[in-house]
């Protein structure tokens, strides 16, 4: 049980505990008394308050018991306890008073302590104060009411008990009893006097009249209803005795003692009262005047009257009660004080109980919370070995248990993280090694747009130290190094919200043009969260040079082949012509006609080829102007509809496509070349479909031209756009090469594919 008013040592220790909260707790291990194996060194709670209570409660009980005893006046003989005395009760009352004062002091002390703890805002003090206040508040109202009612009752009882009328009644009763007794005595004297006078008058005291005396006395006894009549001589001899047979002999035979002697000596009437078991015997002795000598006595007459027990007891009871009543009345004040005190002690005990209970309940909550606060502080300072060892029940117990589980989980989690960090470090080292050895340049960009990684190949290709790039914003670094292609790619991937973007182009690096191919990709983690970008690029300058050489070699071979084709018929025609001329053949004229027309036709074919080639080689830079693409489409379609009756042209145009910049003549040529190819592939009969659409997100115009001709064989797909690739007998193989060149010059792309269900489809995109 927690002590409310602990021993000074304990209290001090507790008082210091809250102060530790809020400081970096160095001690996170178990406290004394908390450790399982450690003996509990706390002293038993023989705290002052319990001691006081332990003494006060029996003291109060005794006070109550004795005051009750005194009040009722029932000093019962069967009581095991000593008789209550006024002083003893007073002592008990004083002890109660001392206990009450100490209890009140202790109660106030703890309340004051709680108040100061609250002022210093110690952990749990607020809650405790509220709880204690609530308990006191709720118990205060009924308790104080009860106390007021009880003290009112005490006052009332006292007033009723010590009422003047009661005293008067008791006093009168006592007077009645006294007068009753005096009446008996007076009657006895009167009777004795009357008998004495009779004896004197009849002279029965004469020696010879003794018989008459005895008979007379017997008669007189019966006449006055007396217990006995005895006649004594002056020499104290019993002359005669008349006795009531109804009264017990032992009563009547009670020794008469000094009464006769006192009468003889005093010469006047005397009385005595003697107690017997069955009642009281009242005797009255009266002298008998002498007939012989004036002023002398002849004897003494003793008359006895018997008052029975029942009457006596009542008389005595009345008188005794009156005496006791007067004694108690003298104690009226202390009894009243004692009663008030009793009520006060009960009140304070109830309040104390409420306060103690408040503290007890609050302690059950605040101590674990205090421990929790300390433990949290320790955790905040990185100590994850904290475990709270506080006994708590209910939800607080659950909270402590959860907290302990949490710290345990945290510890396990921390060690797991440490392990993960080790493996992460290993992985990072591995990735860095890969990045260091890879030939391509790699830059990584974080979400905020700063460059985070620059691998050695990137440094080599860009001719710049990584430190000049690392940690800097992309836009700033790219601008400074004039990496336009990179900047272009970075802007476009943002603008078009792309995940990946590949670009090829020439940019100036260290004053020299460099052909670069780059791939910019968005990095995402497993949960799909955006992590930034990775830019991989390669210097293709050398490769491009080699490729160009190879392309031109192929072009040269093709040109040679194309030129060779018309040359053979020309040579054959010339040789045939010379032979016929030498032979002076008769059909020379017709052969001449035939051969010269072959030569002319082949030469014009050659000329056309050379024209086309020079056109391709001398392709001018596009003259850009903002205009409608659909106008161009409609124009070309109208032209082709007129020329090819057996071909159906379908145009599906996206009207949302805005005006865009392009070279009208060049784009016109693109459509003409594509339509020519389609019409030729379908052998002048079939359907050609042209569609446009606006990709708003990517800001591109997408155009497709499809037909339902034979389509393109998979083996030709790669070569379609190369100059001089043709499958046609009279084709130049430059049509699609020119188309591609125009589209690329407009910063667009073109690709060929298979049309469903049959035919070929060419798709090209232009920036809007
Ligand atoms: P040319 O028309 O002089 O042959 P092109 O470069 O225009 O040169 O075309 C190259 C080749 O591509 C053509 O010879 C043809 O085999 C193929 N081709 C082009 N367009 C189509 C098409 N619409 N359908 C099928 N094949 C085509």
Overview of the molecule:
The protein is built from 19 helices and 17 strands. The protein has helices at residues 8-20, 48-72, 86-119, 125-161, 164-202, 210-224, 249-252, 259-266, 309-330, 332-380, 394-437, 456-462, 474-480, 484-495, 541-583, 588-617, 629-643, 664-681, 735-745; strands at 228-232, 238-243, 270-275, 279-289, 297-308, 441-445, 451-454, 500-509, 512-524, 530-539, 625-627, 647-652, 660-662, 686-695, 700-707, 749-754, 760-767. The two termini are 84 Å apart. A hairpin with a 5-residue loop joins strand 16 and strand 17. The longest helix is centred in the middle third of the chain and has 49 residues, at 332-380. Strands 2-1-5-4-3 form a five-stranded antiparallel sheet. The chain has a five-stranded antiparallel sheet with strand order 7-6-10-9-8, sandwiched between helices. The chain has 768 residues and is of the alpha+beta class. It is rod-shaped and about 245 Å long. The structure holds adenosine-5'-diphosphate (ADP).
List its salient traits:
single chain; 768 residues; alpha+beta; five-stranded antiparallel beta sheet; binds adenosine-5'-diphosphate
- Assembly category: single chain
Strand proportion: 15-25%
How much helix, percentage-wise, in residues? 55-70%
Which hetero ligands occur in this complex? adenosine-5'-diphosphate
N-to-C span: 84 Å
Classification by helices and strands? alpha+beta
Describe the secondary structure blueprint for this structure.
Blueprint: H1 8-20, H2 48-72, H3 86-119, H4 125-161, H5 164-202, H6 210-224, E1 228-232, E2 238-243, H7 249-252, H8 259-266, E3 270-275, E4 279-289, E5 297-308, H9 309-330, H10 332-380, H11 394-437, E6 441-445, E7 451-454, H12 456-462, H13 474-480, H14 484-495, E8 500-509, E9 512-524, E10 530-539, H15 541-583, H16 588-617, E11 625-627, H17 629-643, E12 647-652, E13 660-662, H18 664-681, E14 686-695, E15 700-707, H19 735-745, E16 749-754, E17 760-767
Parallel strand pairs: 12-14
Antiparallel strand pairs: 1-2, 1-5, 3-4, 4-5, 6-7, 6-10, 8-9, 9-10, 11-13, 14-15, 15-17, 16-17
């Amino acid at each position: 049980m927690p002590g409310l008013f602990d021993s000074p040592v304990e209290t001090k220790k507790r008082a210091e505990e809250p102060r530790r909260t809020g400081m970096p707790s160095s001690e996170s291990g178990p406290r004394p008394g908390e450790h399982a194996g450690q003996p509990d060194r706390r002293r038993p709670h023989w705290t002052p308050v319990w001691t006081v209570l332990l003494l006060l409660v029996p003291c109060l009980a005794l006070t109550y018991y004795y005051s009750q005893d005194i009040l009722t006046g029932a000093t019962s003989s069967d009581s095991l306890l000593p008789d209550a005395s006024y002083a003893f009760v007073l002592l008990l009352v004083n002890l109660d008073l001392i206990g009450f004062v100490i209890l009140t002091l202790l109660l106030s002390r703890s309340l004051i302590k709680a108040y100061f703890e609250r002022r210093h805002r110690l952990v749990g003090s607020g809650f405790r104060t509220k709880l204690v206040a609530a308990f006191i508040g709720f118990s205060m109202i009924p308790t104080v009411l009860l106390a007021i009612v009880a003290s009112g009752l005490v006052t009332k009882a006292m007033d009723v008990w010590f009422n003047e009328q009661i005293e008067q009644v008791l006093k009168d009763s006592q007077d009645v009893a006294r007068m009753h007794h005096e009446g008996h005595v007076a009657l006895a004297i009167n009777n004795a006097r009357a008998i004495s006078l009779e004896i004197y008058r009849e002279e029965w005291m004469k020696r010879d009249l003794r018989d008459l005396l005895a008979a007379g006395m017997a008669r007189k006894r019966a006449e006055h209803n007396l217990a006995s009549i005895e006649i004594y001589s002056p020499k104290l001899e019993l002359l005669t005795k008349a006795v009531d047979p109804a009264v017990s002999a032992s009563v009547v035979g009670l020794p008469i003692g000094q009464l006769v002697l006192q009468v003889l000596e005093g010469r006047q009437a005397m009385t005595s009262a003697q107690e017997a078991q069955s009642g009281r015997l009242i005797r009255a002795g009266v002298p008998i005047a002498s007939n012989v000598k004036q002023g002398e006595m002849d004897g003494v007459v003793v008359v006895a009257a018997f008052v029975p027990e029942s009457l006596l007891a009542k008389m005595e009871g009345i008188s005794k009660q009156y005496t006791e009543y007067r004694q108690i009345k003298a104690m009226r004040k202390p009894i009243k004080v004692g009663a008030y005190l009793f009520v006060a002690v009960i009140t304070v005990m109830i309040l104390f109980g409420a306060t103690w209970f408040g503290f007890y309940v609050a302690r059950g909550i605040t101590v674990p919370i205090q421990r929790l606060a300390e433990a949290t502080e320790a955790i905040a300072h990185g100590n994850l070995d904290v475990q709270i060892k506080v006994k708590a029940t209910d939800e607080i117990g659950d909270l402590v248990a959860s907290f302990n589980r949490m710290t345990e989980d945290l510890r396990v989690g921390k060690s797991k993280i440490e392990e993960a960090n080790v493996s992460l470090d290993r992985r990072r080292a591995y990735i860095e090694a890969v990045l260091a050895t890879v030939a391509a340049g790699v830059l990584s960009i974080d979400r905020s747009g700063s460059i985070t990684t620059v691998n050695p190949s990137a440094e080599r290709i860009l001719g710049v130290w990584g430190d000049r790039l690392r940690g800097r914003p992309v836009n700033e670094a790219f601008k400074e190094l004039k990496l336009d292609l990179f900047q272009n790619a970075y802007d476009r991937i943002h603008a078009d919200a792309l995940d990946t973007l590949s670009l090829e182009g020439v940019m100036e690096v260290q004053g020299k043009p460099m052909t670069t191919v780059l791939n910019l990709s968005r990095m995402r983690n497993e949960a799909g969260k955006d992590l930034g970008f990775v830019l991989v690029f390669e210097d293709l300058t050398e490769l491009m040079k080699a490729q160009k050489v190879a392309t031109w070699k192929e072009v040269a071979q093709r040109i040679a082949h194309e030129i060779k084709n018309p040359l053979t018929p020309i040579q054959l025609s010339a040789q045939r012509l010379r032979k016929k001329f030498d032979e002076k053949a008769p059909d020379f004229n017709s052969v001449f006609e035939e051969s010269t027309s072959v030569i002319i036709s082949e030469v014009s074919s050659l000329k056309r080829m050379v024209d086309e080639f020079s056109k391709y080689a001398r392709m001018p830079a596009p003259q850009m102007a903002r205009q409608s693409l659909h106008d161009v489409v409609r124009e070309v379609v109208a032209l082709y509809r007129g020329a090819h009756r057996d071909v159906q042209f379908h145009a599906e145009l996206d009207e949302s496509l805005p005006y865009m910049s392009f070279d009208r003549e060049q784009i016109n040529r693109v459509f003409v070349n594509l339509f020519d190819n389609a019409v030729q592939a379908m052998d002048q009969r079939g359907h050609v479909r042209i569609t446009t659409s606006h990709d708003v997100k990517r800001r591109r115009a997408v155009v497709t031209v499809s037909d339902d001709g034979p389509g393109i064989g998979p083996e030709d797909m790669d070569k379609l756009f190369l100059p001089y690739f043709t499958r046609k007998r009279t084709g130049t193989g430059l049509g699609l090469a020119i188309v591609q060149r125009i589209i690329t010059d407009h910063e667009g792309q073109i690709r060929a594919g298979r049309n469903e269900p049959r035919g070929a489809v060419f798709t090209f995109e232009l920036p809007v």
